[in-house]
Amino acid sequence: MIDAASPIAQQDSNNLMQSAMADQNLRQEQELIGTKAFANMRGQYLDSHTSVVNEANINISEIQSNADIPASEKQKMITQQIDMRNADLEAMQLLFQNTPMWEQNWNSI
Known about the structure:
Blueprint: H1 2-65, H2 71-97
């Protein structure tokens, strides 16, 4: 009877081992996808942040170098550019932070 049951037990053991390995591979794949999504989201945020800052810097530089703008107006315009930049950065940060992938462990939410 033991000889007859041994192959069945061996097959059951192999099936359990294969199932456990498949589950582990799936978890690792999901973790990798989550890490890639997190990195992509942060990369997009940094690219957008840099773009907003660069745009404001270009505008400020153009204001400063424009001889047709009176000095008293230049400071007002520069202040407006800085205020717009800061508002854009704040809005962008809120937008990105409200996406599920902003958190490293988004796939467990």
